[in-house]
Amino acid sequence: QVQLVESGGGSVQAGEPLKLSCVASGRIVLSRGALAWYRQTISNEREWVATTDRDDMTFYGGSMNGRVSISRDGAKNTAYLEITSRKPDDAGLYLCTAYSIWGQGTQVTVSS
To answer: Which pLDDT does position 15 carry in this prediction?
Structure first.
């Protein structure tokens, strides 16, 4: 079965770092091709957070630009999103996507 599974979310204090993971299974190979992270708010708005392309160039956008880092580990077939200095507005459902496939997301809440 082809799928992406996110993890690493939870309730955290503002200002603390957090690292989210996205593990691929099936025929998805995360070491190649583009992949991205999005944040979905409580009102179901989906905000693009970060992308890494097939050449490992990284791109960031939205309200979290400057406070996030996207990376991947080919050996583990896993992608990561590291968030530094979290803010309460960072709360939401974080989803990864690759090859038009989306994971179910991992929920992050931030307390001030």
So the answer is: 84
